[in-house]
Design goal:
alpha+beta; five-stranded antiparallel β-sheet; elongated
Length: 166
Amino acid sequence: MEKRKAKRGWTALLILSIIFITLGTLYIIVGAVVGSLAFNEDAVIFGYTFGGLGAVFLIVGGICLSLEIRKRRLINKLLHSGQYIMAEISEITMNYAVRVNFRHPYIVICRYQDMNGYVHTFRSRNLNFDPAPLLRDRMVRVYVEGDDFRHYYVDIDEVLPAVIAH
């Protein structure tokens, strides 16, 4: 059986980490070149300052990248564990916390009621299109980590046809 991977795409955290790592590397290189070729004390201080700022950018970018990799590994671990619950799609709405090209992506909100009567709500990943007319089912798999519902993955791709953007 082929191992599936969760679709995450280009997240803001991934883009931010790439930008910070690139800037940090460039700043360190410029700082090292200016510091090594310096003829006076001001140029050496400028090189150290530039390199230090680059090191800070590089560290922040590395932290962001490690958080993104950790999130992706957790989602793939949940997907491969095979432990899921069936949740009912209760709402399809726009995610007003995010805006890309002046448009808000869609999210699917689903709910699950456990044996104790508690209702748990789960949110899907951001979708660039309205999935409402494409849904094949009102029930969706939500992969969870045991009884801890804080870590989950809504497998929205299972109830949607393959969408190819051009």
